[in-house]
Design goal:
The complex is a heterotrimer of chains A (about 375), B (about 425) and C (about 220). Chain A is an alpha+beta fold and about 375 residues long. Chain A has two domains: about 1-50 and about 235-365, no CATH class; about 55-230, no CATH class. Helices cover about 60% and strands about 20% of the residues of chain A. In chain A, strand 2 (about 90-100) and strand 3 (about 100-110) form a beta hairpin. Chain A is elongated, with a radius of gyration of 33 Å. Chain B starts with a helix and ends with a helix. Chain B has two domains: about 1-45 and about 295-420, no CATH class; about 55-285, no CATH class. In chain B, about 45% of the residues are buried. Helices cover about 50% and strands about 20% of the residues of chain B. In chain B, helix 2 (about 15-50) packs parallel to helix 12 (about 340-380) and helix 12 runs antiparallel to helix 13 (about 390-415). In chain B, the strands form four sheets. Chain B has a six-stranded mixed beta barrel. In chain B, strands 2-3 form a two-stranded antiparallel ribbon. A two-stranded antiparallel sheet of chain B has the order 4-14. Chain C has a domain at about 5-95 and about 160-220: P-loop containing nucleotide triphosphate hydrolases (Rossmann fold), CATH 3.40.50.300. Chain C has helices spanning about 45-50, 75-85, 100-110, 115-125, 140-155, 170-185, 200-205, and strands at about 5-15, 20-30, 35-40, 60-65, 70, 85-90, 160-165, 190-195, 205-210, 215-220. In chain C, about 50% of the residues are buried. In chain C, strand 1 (about 5-15) and strand 2 form a beta hairpin. In chain C, helix 3 (about 100-110) crosses helix 4, helix 3 packs parallel to helix 5 (about 140-155) and helix 5 (about 140-155) runs parallel beside helix 6 (about 170-185). Chain C contains seven helices and ten strands. Chain C has a six-stranded mixed sheet, with helices on both faces. In chain C, strands 2-1-4-5 form a four-stranded antiparallel sheet, with helices on one face. Chain C is α/β, with parallel strands linked by helices and about 220 residues long.
C-alpha cells in the first residue's frame, strides 16, 4: 500500500516532483563534478607537468674512469623503463672539437629528445635528420654559427674521424644544453667510450623514482635514477596546493548545495502538510506517515543521483577539457559519494519536514490555519 | 502604510526572516571567501612556485664553451672569469626589484679535505640586503633552494666556522654530522664544523659548502663569485612575448610598452644582465616553463571553480527564497483580493527581499573575508591581501542574488489563480 | 435612477474536462438587495461568487456590475475595480498573520486611497472590536477574526459586499453576532450577496437563489 501511495503521490504532484527532482539532480551533478575533478585533478595536473620535461636522470654509478661502460646494464634499464611505459631519452656524449675548440657532442634520438625537452626554444627546425645537427646557443654565439651553415666535427674516439653536419636549429634552454651539439644517434656498437645518461619523465614524482630504483636494485644494476630535485619538489608542493584548493571548493559547493536542496525539499513537504494531516486524520500512524515521506525522499534521491552522476561527469569532462585539453577519467568513486550525500540530504530534509508537518495539529491544518 | 506593512512583516516574523538572512549570509560568506581565494591564488601560487628553485642563472661572459656532462666536468681547465659580489646588492634597486625573490651568488673553488681534492662551494646562506626605507631583504640558499633536503641544521650567519657537506661526499669520506673537518687550500685553511648533510641532486652533492666570505678568503678571491642563482616572480610567456621573440620590430608601440612592463622571464633576465657587469643571465627554461604551465592552469581552474561555486550558491539562495515566497502564496492572493495591483504586491515583496539580501550580504561580506583569510592561510600559509572591493561588493551581491532568486517565485505567485489559492488548493 | 447593481446574462463557466460549474446563468440584483445563494456542495455557489469578484473569469456570457461591462477586465483592472466597489468576506477569514487587527483593516484603506487610523478604529468600533485593535490574528478568536474580516470589507464603504459562507467556521453565538452585523449593513443600503447552505441564514435575505449543477433551479 505504501509503495503504491508513494508512486501515486509522486505522479499526482508531477510538477512539484519534477522541480524537486531537477533541484536534486543539479546538486548531485555539482557534487559529482567537484568530486570527479578533485580526484582527477592531481593525476591530470601531474600528467601535464610530466609533459613539460624530465624529472629524473639515469646515470651509471661509476664514472667512465673507474669502470668501462657496460652496455648490458643499459639493456636492463631499457627493459624496465619500457615495461613501465615511462617516456625516456638516452643521450650519449663524447668530446669532439669543432674549429679547434672542444665541445660536448650529444647523440640522441631526435624525436624522443623533442618530446622530452618541449621547453627548449629552437630557432630553426626542432627535429633534425641524418647529417643534420642542433647546436646550443652558446656554441652558436662563440663559433658564429647560424641555421643552415655546415660544420665539421672531429671525433677522435669515433670510427670515422671527421663528420660533416649541417645546422638545423639553435637551442635556447638556459642550461648546459646550450653548450652542446646534438646529432642523430649512431649505432650502439660504435659507442666505445663516452658517457651515457638518460632523461626520464617518471609519473608520481619521488615515489615513482623510488619504485624504479628498487626494480633496478633487484637486478643489481649499477644504474641509478636521480631525481631532478627542484622539479620533483616543486611539483609535489604544487600538487598539494592544487588538491587543497579543489577540496576547499568541493566543501563549499557541498555546503551550499545541501542548504539549497534541503530548503527545497522542506518546502515541498510543508506545502503538502494538509495531505499529511488528512492521512493522520483518517487513521495513519505517525510512523506510517514518516516512512511514507522517507521512502518518497529516498526514491527521488536515488533517481537524482543517477541522473546527476551522468550530468556531473559530462560537466567535469568540459572543465577538464578546457584546462588540460584531455578527457576526464570517469570516477566510479564519485557515484557512491554523490549517492550518499544526496540520500543523506534528502533524508535529513525530509525528516525535518516531517517533524514540522507532524508537529502541527491535524485539525488546525485541515481548518486551513 | 507600505513601510508599516514591511516593518511588521519583518519584526513580527523574525524567525522566518532570520532564516532567509541566514541563508544569504552563509551563501555570500562562502562565495566571498572563495572569490578572495581565487583572486589571491594567482599571486600566492606564483610565490609558491618558488619551490621550483631558481629560474634565472647568472654566469660570467665566457669565451670558451664549458665542457660538462651532468655533474662531471670533462675538461680539466677551470673557468677563470668571475663576477663582482657587490653588484648583486644592486638587484634590489632595479626596475624589477619587487619581482626578485631570491639571490644566491656562488663561488666554486677547489680544496683539500682529509687529503683528497674536493670542490668547495661558497654561497649566501642567509644574506641581508638593506633596502630603501629601512627594510631588510633576506636572501640566500635557505630561501631559494627549497628543494634541498638537509639533515641537520642550516649554518647561522655569524658562525663562520660552520658549513654543510654534500651527501655523496660525506658518504665517500665518512664524514658525519657534528664532525670537525679541516678544509685546506693553497691560500689557507679552516676548521669547519659540519652542521648538516645536504642532498640536492646536483653538483653540491659532492662538495663542501660554506659561507661565501669564508670561501672567498680561502681561495684568495675576495669579493668575487663565479655564478649566481636568482629566483624571480614571472609572468608566463604569452603570444606577445612570442611575437617579440620572433621579430621585435613587429610590435606596435603600445604592444612594446606592454611587453616592456611585463615581468616575462626574459625581461627580468636582461634587467639582471644589465646590472651585473660582464654577466650573462639565462632563463632556465625547464623551470620557467613548468612554472608558467602551472600558473596558467591553476588560474583557469580557479576561475572555473569560482564560477561554478557562484552558480551553485545562487541556485541555493534562490531555492531557499523561492520556498520562502511559496509559503506566502495565500498572502499574495489575499492582497490581490483586497485590491492590490500586481505591482503593489511585487514592490512590497521585492523591497522586503532586497532588505534581507543586503543585510545577509553585509554579514556575508564580513564573515566571508574571515573565511577567505582562513582558506588562504590554510592553503598557502601566507597573509592575504586586503580585499576591500569584495567587502563593498558583497551587499550588492546579496541584493542581486536575493532579487533574482525571488522575482520568479513572486511573479509565479502573482500569476496563480487567486480564487484557488484562497480556497486552499 | 438606475438601481441595478449586478446583471448576469447567460453566464457559463466550464472547467477543463468539460465540467460546467455554471451554465447559462442569468441574474439581476438591485441596489440594497440581500441575496442568499444556496445549494448543495458543488452546485457552483462559490464559482458564482468568484466570477462576481473577478477572482475567476467566466467562459462565456456577459456580466455588468454597477453599469460596467467587466468581461474584458485584466487582473489589475479587477484589482482597482474591486477595491473601489466590492468588499470581500471569506469563510476562512484570511488575515495577514503579522499585522494587527487594526492594520489588517487599514490595509484595505491603503490599497483603496489613504490610510486613516481614526476611520479604521471607528469601523472596528462598529463591529465592537475596539479593545482588540492591537491584537494579532493569532490572539483573536474565530468570531473576532471574522469580524475583523468584515470590518476590512466595510472600510471603503463598498456598494457590494460578497460573503462566502461567512459563518461556516463559527459557533452559534458568533454566528448570531456576525449576522447582526450583516443585518445592519443591509439596512444601510449595501447590496449583499452571500453564499450559504444554512437555511436559517438564508431566511434573513430578501431573496434566495437555489443553484444545482450550475443552473438556477429556484428563486424566491
Amino acid at each position: 500500500m505504501i509503495g503504491k501511495m508513494v508512486r501515486k503521490s509522486l505522479f499526482k504532484n508531477i510538477r512539484i516532483t519534477l522541480w524537486t527532482l531537477v533541484t536534486l539532480t543539479i546538486s548531485a551533478a555539482l557534487i559529482t563534478m567537484f568530486a570527479t575533478v578533485s580526484f582527477d585533478i592531481k593525476k591530470r595536473m601531474g600528467n601535464t607537468l610530466r609533459k613539460l620535461g624530465p624529472n629524473a636522470v639515469a646515470v651509471s654509478r661509476f664514472s667512465e674512469n673507474e669502470r668501462p661502460l657496460n652496455l648490458d646494464e643499459w639493456g636492463q634499464f631499457r627493459a624496465i623503463v619500457k615495461r613501465e611505459g615511462i617516456p625516456t631519452v638516452e643521450l650519449s656524449f663524447d668530446i669532439v672539437t669543432v674549429e679547434g675548440k672542444p665541445v660536448v657532442l650529444a647523440m640522441a634520438d631526435s624525436e624522443k629528445l623533442a618530446q622530452m625537452t618541449p621547453y627548449w626554444i629552437v630557432i630553426g627546425h626542432r627535429v633534425w635528420k641524418e647529417q643534420q645537427c642542433l647546436i646550443g646557443k652558446r656554441v652558436a654565439e662563440l663559433l658564429k654559427l647560424k641555421p643552415g651553415m655546415s660544420i665539421t666535427v672531429h671525433q677522435p674516439s669515433g670510427a670515422k674521424k671527421e663528420t660533416g653536419y649541417s645546422i638545423a636549429g639553435i637551442i635556447v634552454s638556459g642550461d648546459e644544453n646550450e653548450d652542446r651539439i646534438f646529432v642523430p644517434e649512431p649505432l650502439a656498437e660504435t659507442i666505445q667510450h663516452g658517457f651515457i645518461y638518460a632523461l626520464l619523465s617518471v609519473p608520481e614524482g619521488g615515489n615513482g623514482i623510488h619504485r624504479l630504483n628498487t626494480q633496478l636494485g633487484q637486478v643489481q644494476s649499477h644504474i641509478e635514477i636521480k631525481p631532478l630535485r627542484e622539479i620533483v619538489h616543486g611539483e609535489e608542493a604544487t600538487l598539494k596546493k592544487v588538491v587543497l584548493l579543489s577540496s576547499a571548493c568541493l566543501m563549499t559547493v557541498m555546503v551550499l548545495t545541501v542548504l539549497g536542496v534541503s530548503s527545497a525539499l522542506l518546502s515541498r513537504i510543508v506545502e503538502r502538510r494538509k495531505e499529511f494531516a488528512l492521512l493522520q486524520a483518517i487513521g495513519a500512524t505517525r510512523r506510517s506517515v514518516i516512512s511514507f515521506l522517507l521512502l518518497e525522499g529516498m526514491s527521488l534521491a536515488v533517481l537524482a543521483s543517477a541522473l546527476g552522476f551522468a550530468a556531473g561527469t559530462l560537466l567535469s569532462e568540459m572543465v577538464v577539457r578546457q584546462i588540460f585539453h584531455v578527457s576526464v577519467t570517469p570516477q566510479v568513486t564519485a557515484l557512491p559519494i554523490t549517492l550518499v550525500v544526496t540520500l543523506v540530504v534528502s533524508l535529513l530534509a525530509s525528516s525535518a519536514g516531517v517533524a514540522r508537518a507532524l508537529k502541527m495539529q491535524p485539525a488546525l491544518v485541515l481548518k486551513g490555519e | 502604510m507600505f513601510w508599516r506593512i514591511l516593518f511588521d512583516s519583518i519584526v513580527r516574523r523574525k524567525l522566518r526572516k532570520a532564516l532567509a538572512v541566514f541563508a544569504v549570509w552563509i551563501g555570500i560568506s562562502l562565495v566571498v571567501g572563495l572569490l578572495m581565494l581565487s583572486i589571491d591564488t594567482g599571486d600566492k601560487m606564483n610565490l609558491e612556485l618558488g619551490s621550483f628553485g631558481a629560474n634565472i642563472k647568472v654566469t660570467p661572459v665566457s669565451f670558451s664553451i664549458p665542457v660538462t656532462v651532468g655533474d662531471y666536468s670533462l675538461n680539466s681547465e677551470k673557468v677563470s672569469a668571475y663576477l663582482e659580489e657587490s653588484a648583486f646588492q644592486k638587484l634590489k634597486e632595479i626596475f624589477w626589484r619587487n619581482n626578485i625573490m631570491g639571490i644566491v651568488p656562488r663561488l666554486w673553488a677547489s680544496a683539500q679535505l682529509n687529503g683528497k681534492n674536493v670542490p668547495l662551494l661558497g654561497l649566501w646562506l642567509e644574506h641581508k640586503i638593506p633596502l630603501e626605507g629601512g627594510e631588510v631583504f633576506v636572501s640566500g640558499a635557505r630561501q631559494v633552494y627549497k628543494h634541498w633536503a638537509i639533515q641537520g641544521n642550516w649554518p647561522l650567519s655569524g658562525a663562520e666556522n660552520t658549513g654543510l657537506i654534500g651527501q655523496e661526499l660525506a658518504g665517500r669520506l665518512k664524514v658525519s654530522l657534528g664532525d670537525q673537518v679541516e678544509v685546506k687550500t693553497d691560500k689557507g685553511s679552516i676548521d669547519l664544523e659540519v652542521l648538516g648533510i645536504v642532498s640536492t641532486g646536483g653538483q653540491e652533492d659532492s662538495a663542501v659548502i660554506a659561507f661565501l666570505e669564508t670561501v672567498q678568503k680561502l681561495a684568495g678571491l675576495q669579493g668575487k663569485v663565479s655564478e649566481a642563482d636568482v629566483s624571480a616572480l614571472t609572468t608566463p610567456e604569452n603570444r606577445l612575448a612570442e611575437k617579440y621573440r620572433i621579430d621585435p620590430k613587429s610590435l606596435t608601440s603600445a604592444e612594446y610598452e606592454r611587453w616592456y612592463c611585463t615581468p616575462y622571464p626574459e625581461n627580468i633576465a636582461s634587467g639582471i644582465q644589465e646590472t651585473i657587469p660582464n654577466s650573462v643571465a639565462r632563463v632556465v627554461r625547464r623551470i620557467s616553463e613548468t612554472q608558467g604551465a602551472v600558473l596558467t592552469r591553476i588560474k583557469g581552474l580557479m576561475i572555473l571553480l569560482a564560477i561554478f561555486t557562484l552558480i551553485s550558491c545562487s541556485l541555493s539562495i534562490m531555492g531557499i527564497l523561492a520556498s520562502a515566497i511559496l509559503d506566502r502564496r495565500p498572502e499574495v492572493a489575499l492582497l490581490q483580493a483586497l485590491g492590490a495591483k500586481r505591482t503593489n504586491v511585487l514592490a512590497l515583496f521585492l523591497v522586503e527581499v532586497a532588505f534581507l539580501g543586503i543585510l545577509g550580504g553585509l554579514l556575508g561580506g564580513i564573515t566571508g573575508s574571515w573565511v577567505g583569510r582562513g582558506l588562504i592561510e590554510a592553503i598557502f600559509g601566507g597573509k592575504p591581501d586586503g580585499h576591500l572591493a569584495l567587502l563593498i561588493l558583497s551587499p550588492f551581491l546579496g541584493l542581486i542574488m536575493a532579487l533574482i532568486g525571488s522575482l520568479g517565485p513572486i511573479w509565479k505567485a502573482l500569476g496563480e489563480n487567486t480564487a484557488q489559492v484562497l480556497h486552499g488548493n | 435612477m438606475e438601481t441595478l447593481v449586478i446583471a448576469f446574462d447567460r453566464v457559463s463557466k466550464c472547467y477543463p474536462g468539460g465540467v460546467y460549474a455554471l451554465s447559462d446563468v442569468s441574474l439581476r440584483i438591485e441596489q440594497g438587495e440581500w441575496v442568499a445563494v444556496m445549494g448543495p456542495s458543488g452546485s457552483g455557489k462559490t464559482t458564482l461568487l468568484n466570477i462576481l469578484d473577478g477572482l475567476d473569469q467566466p467562459t462565456s456570457g456577459r456580466i455588468e456590475i454597477l453599469g460596467r461591462d467587466t468581461s474584458h477586465f485584466g487582473t489589475d483592472e479587477w484589482s482597482v475595480f474591486r477595491r473601489e466597489n466590492i468588499g470581500l468576506v471569506f469563510q476562512q477569514f484570511y488575515l495577514i498573520p503579522y499585522l494587527t487587527a487594526l492594520e489588517n483593516v487599514m490595509l484595505a484603506q491603503y490599497y483603496h486611497s489613504m490610510v486613516d487610523t481614526k476611520q479604521a478604529m471607528k469601523t472596528l468600533g462598529r463591529i465592537k472590536l475596539m479593545d482588540r485593535a492591537r491584537h494579532l490574528p493569532s490572539q483573536l478568536s474565530g468570531g473576532e477574526q471574522q469580524r475583523v474580516c468584515i470590518a476590512r470589507a466595510l472600510i471603503n464603504e463598498p456598494k457590494i459586499i460578497l460573503a462566502d459562507e461567512p459563518t461556516g467556521n463559527l459557533d452559534e453565538d458568533n454566528e448570531k453576532t456576525v449576522m447582526d452585523i450583516f443585518r445592519g449593513l443591509h439596512s444601510e443600503g449595501h447590496a449583499i450577496i452571500m453564499v450559504t447552505h444554512n437555511p436559517n441564514i438564508g431566511q434573513l435575505a430578501d431573496r434566495r437563489i437555489f443553484l444545482n449543477h450550475g443552473k438556477i433551479t429556484r428563486s424566491n
